[in-house]
């Protein structure tokens, strides 16, 4: 590690984590009011160290804040937005900050129009990204191209306003205000579903466990129930 890397004790907002499988390096990324910081795990000191600080006026609130690990790049890209792609085959346009570049940091052309409603980005591996956008789920590569050859249904539309998705053991649970359903990854088939207007549902994610939180619709501040999705 270079001598210019120092300890960082910043107060950060969301901290997405990523691992570069080619180098084995672990990263955290933080969004400040007017910029982005990247931290890397430094094994000899047993802590994360600041390696990049990029000043850029971020949108508020941030529609998306995730890292995308691109093969061949040392540092992850920082995704700060996602919108519809310019063509059917390019279904998604990622608005990213390239922390590997010294000149062209922000990769957005400025012509993309953000989609209304919840958006979410989950990188599955070096070539596959799961994107919730425009009330549909899309499986694309890092260029936003649909992975038609890899999945029977690279685009899955929803008939409800899905708020959040997760991935557990090749299944995709999706939650909306009054329900949750589960589909196999890359399939339009619904294998489990629960709808109940008496309860509100919220999906709580972790790397290995998905938890569903429910609250009575008539008592939004009342006690909640937590269920582990198996």
TrEMBL record:
Record Pfam families: CNH
Give start and end of each CNH domain: 1-209
Q: Which SMART domains does the record associate with it?
A: CNH
Protein name, UniProt field: CNH domain-containing protein
> What is the originating organism of this protein?
Sphenodon punctatus
